[in-house]
Amino acid sequence: MSTRRTPSRSSKEEKPIVGFLGVGLDNEDGHSRVTKGEDFTLVGGSQETHERMQGLVIRMNEKLKRKGKKIRDLSRDEFEELAGESFE
What we know:
Layout: E1 20-24, E2 34-36, E3 40-44, H1 47-67, H2 76-86
Parallel strand pairs: 1-3
Antiparallel strand pairs: 2-3
């Protein structure tokens, strides 16, 4: 009996970032909030939290537009740097 192994990605190989998912967990009013864009989806949260997530994504997309890039063009380090710079 032969065992066939599926090739796996090297742990050092960086997986591409294909989008941004924001999840707000502090919703107590029962309202369902969903905002979708080309490279992001935001779900849940209180009105304040959802608006803060929207603001973050807007700032990130503005910076990306100035650089002529999209989220999927960034390395993990670039994404983390962009998110940190864009966070209020």
